[in-house]
From TrEMBL, chains A, B, C, D:
Name listed for the protein in its UniProt record: 4-hydroxybenzoyl-CoA thioesterase
GO molecular function, one term: fatty acyl-CoA hydrolase activity
UniProt xrefs under Pfam families: 4HBT_2
Originating organism: Paraburkholderia steynii
Organismal lineage: Bacteria, Pseudomonadati, Pseudomonadota, Betaproteobacteria, Burkholderiales
Membership in a protein family: Belongs to the 4-hydroxybenzoyl-CoA thioesterase family.
InterPro entries attached to this UniProt entry: 4-hydroxybenzoyl-CoA_TE, HotDog_dom_sf
Length: 144, 144, 144, 144
């Protein structure tokens, strides 16, 4: 089972639309921030350093499915709970649950491919390297 | 069959991330813009005027499923093709296809509920009114 | 002298542009967040509640002057130091200094008017009420 | 005198805040888009190509001064009128006026430095090259 991380958001006035609630693309923005933060919290290097490796690795988004359960507004503190739900060959699925205390605001399942840059500059999907997977595994499961 | 509208986007430098490609939440932003534009093009009033009706109607987003086929970058012109894919009782599904000429960049299916505001201020989903559905139907199909 | 507040920002990948540095309108977004946060930290109600008062008060931005000293990038933690620099009749000037540790990234001076809504719905600038000014004064200066 | 370009904006629902008006950092975003568009309209290459030159040229923003005259809202079409107000050694000042028909919404004066990348990777301001200045001059003034 993967680690689960928590990423905190303070909803701003400017994150909200004329209905007074969070403009929904901001939820995608926060899930993306939580996704980057996840790998950092797991001890992996930031995207910037990945890019300088000879066959740099990136994780482009292939697909995302988001369900909105209720709205949120400015002045509220939310948290994003993020984990890797599945490793499947050359892709992995990350889930994000945005909560206000015990209330689920929205949840997203994002499918990413893991890619290396080929000599001709084109991206090619590759199996998830073991060190990436290991870094994301929770200590409890690794323990024995 | 519903009308299909076209909404144009000129991708800006500031819409792109350190990888030099469109930061994906901007695609959600553009699909939302295309969704609002769709109803305007169909002759329905803007959200602002809806809000002033006694039992105002809104169309909160319940769910969205987006697939990313390839990336886009600044300096490119994209178009969003939008239509209503299905009317299903109290919800409707809008589809958005973002194209660069003949290349499909990404596509989204967004499920919206149609709601009225009750006397206590809470939203309640209602069947899609006939005038909304009629406004969105293409002339060709209505014709005979 | 006014209180000075601190508002924290964690710069995200998606806040940065193809040059790999913060896209500058995000600095405006963060200064706006810090401005709202300032009044909350001073004990004043959020904008939402202001709006429900009979002659609601708002503080539209009239002018902003921003200087950029150096760039910032994702993975960095910044803080915005905010204070009221001057109360001048119907306007007040807020200053924001965005720092990365001891390095000044950028600074802004924002001139706001204080307005009430008139019976005809139009805004009218009014002198800053004493309770607003008092709430923003630092304890040290008020003390004796 | 420099060329003046026109850049069109259709204000979206999601560009507006809970007050129902454009959230002001979007004006900065649009001025930046107009600034990039200006140089493209003047026949200069996009930033992407600049970056590949041996001593690539960039134009980091040093300072911006914006005045807000009145608000704008979704459903409105605005235009940004952009020109170079002054060339001054290693910097140039671009002005942007955002209009709704004959109404001035806001105006900004942005000071940019023109930089090359040195061998050690650091930026160094340089005098504006003659080909850049010439490209931005209006035909009428060049004519004789």
């Amino acid at each position: 089972m993967s680690k689960e991380t928590v990423y905190r958001i303070d909803v701003q006035f400017g994150d909200c639309d004329p209905a007074g609630i969070v403009f929904f693309p901001n939820f995608s923005r926060w899930m993306d921030a939580a996704s980057h933060d996840y790998f950092i919290q797991c001890g992996l290097p930031p995207w910037r350093e990945m890019q300088t490796l000879p066959h740099c690795i990136g994780a482009p988004l292939l697909e995302v499915h988001t369900r909105f359960h209720t709205s949120a507004t400015y002045g509220e503190s939310l948290v994003v709970h993020t984990r890797v739900e599945e490793w499947r060959g050359k892709v992995f699925i990350q889930s994000h649950r945005i909560m206000r205390n015990d209330t689920l605001i929205c949840e997203g399942r994002a499918t990413h491919a893991l890619c290396v840059k080929q000599d001709d500059g084109r991206l090619k999907a590759v199996p998830v390297p073991e060190f990436v997977r290991a870094a994301c595994e929770s200590v409890e499961n690794v323990a024995y």
